[in-house]
Amino acid sequence: MNSTSYVFKVEQALNIEHATKIFRHNGTRNWLARLRRTRNGEDKPAQTVAISDLSLRVRRGEIFGVLGPNGSGKSTLVRLIATLLIPDSGTITVFGHDVQREEMIVKRMINRVSVDAAFFKKLSPMENLLYAARLYGVNASRARRQVITILTRLGIKERDIYMPLEHMSRGMQQKVAIARAFLSAPILLLLDEPTTGLDPRSKREVQAFVRELRDAHEATILLTTHDMSEADALCDRIAILDEGRIVALDTPAGLKRLVPRTNDHEPTLEDVFMALTGKALVEDEQ
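Below the sequence we write its predicted structure tokens.
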């Protein structure tokens, strides 16, 4: 049985069991560690617990949102799923395949979009995406047609597909990053702040394309975002993450029921977020 046929027999797209990720810092190099001296004057190693004993299940075909303040562990969680980081303990499986023991199988199933996407800026979107297509094993002529279809669907004019990326706005470059992820037709798409830097119209175009990818191609999508309205509109369920732990997980409507309704105000996801974390939702500092 190949991995593709196995996917459709597995109801859980993503299964995380008691995952923990700790970043340890060298005491002689890290300023924070130097403040944590032991009594005998030696440096005590400092560490940051990014993900703490986290368990999570995402169903096949679901758009699953992750909200969290700065330093909550959202990007670390995405990197663990994407096999870019290794958990210190616990297990992560994608459609039944372990991200550590079956890394190459998992990589063929997923793709990731982040706010720090890297490109060859002197090349055009077409050239960048044709290069990516070769890495994904997509036929060049087929890839060329897909590039035009996807980028125009995302609101980029066809003439701009052939201009150098360095001449394009940050928002347009982000659209190219999203197109690159779609090009490989992943069955699990990891979107880490995908609409950051986009204008309202571009956000709507990307959000519509995300829904289309799920509905037409049966993709499962994990989305981290700072846009509460985006999470409310797109996500079937949402986990709120704080200090590496899930503090709430439910549908958008279910989360709103956690906050009392007042006479003149219907609870919003922002109200829920503030009530559970006591923190403002602002953009992560990279």
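The CA atoms of residues 50 and 187 lie 26 Å apart.
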